[in-house]
Amino acid sequence: MQMEEMFKEFEFNEEPEEMISELNGMPLPEDYLAFMREHNGGEGPLGENNYGCFYRLEKLAEVNAEYDVPNNWPGYVVLGSDMSGQLWAWNPEKRIWCQIDSGNIDEDTYYTISDSFEAFLANMDEELR
Predict the structure, then answer these.
(1) Which residues are paired to 114 by β-bridges?
(2) Per-residue b/e over 98-112, b at no fewer than 16 CB within 10 Å?
(3) Other CB atoms within 10 Å distance of the CB of residue 15
(4) Which of 10, 12, 27, 115 could form a Cys-Cys staple with 44, CB 3.0–4.6 A?
């Protein structure tokens, strides 16, 4: 599924007030940053089977602090969620995207592991069929 099709009903935010390229001392993925430069996240249906949000750049530090991401999921940055307990995270060292259950800190339980923003979205949609 093409990105345009994936986001056809998604409600995007306004452009970011200020771009950031890292969070908690970790670099954010370039494909995600390209998306954020244009849309600054948003909320809505993603593909045929998923729903969720990508947090505004201005909110990322606050969201990661609220979930205590550096302590609960070291090496990861939370960038979005399905709004029902699954967090969407990036690990710059491993160069992977994944879903994390917000109630579980065991790395063995992470899923939808993908190596790019686009693959992550497509894989989530496929898993929910």
Answers:
(1) 97
(2) bbbeeeeeeeeebeb
(3) 12
(4) 10
CA distances from 43 to 2, 36, 59 (A): 18, 13, 14
Q: Do residues 122 and 6 lie in contact, with contact meaning Cβ atoms separated by under 8 Å? A: yes
Beta strand extents in 1-129 (DSSP E only): 11-12, 22-23, 26-27, 42-46, 50-54, 77-81, 86-91, 96-101, 111-114
pLDDT at 68: 96
Q: All domains of the chain, ordered by start, with CATH?
A: 3-127 (3.40.1580.10)
Render pLDDT for 62-87 as a digit per residue (tens, 0 to 9). 999 999 999 999 999 999 999 999 99
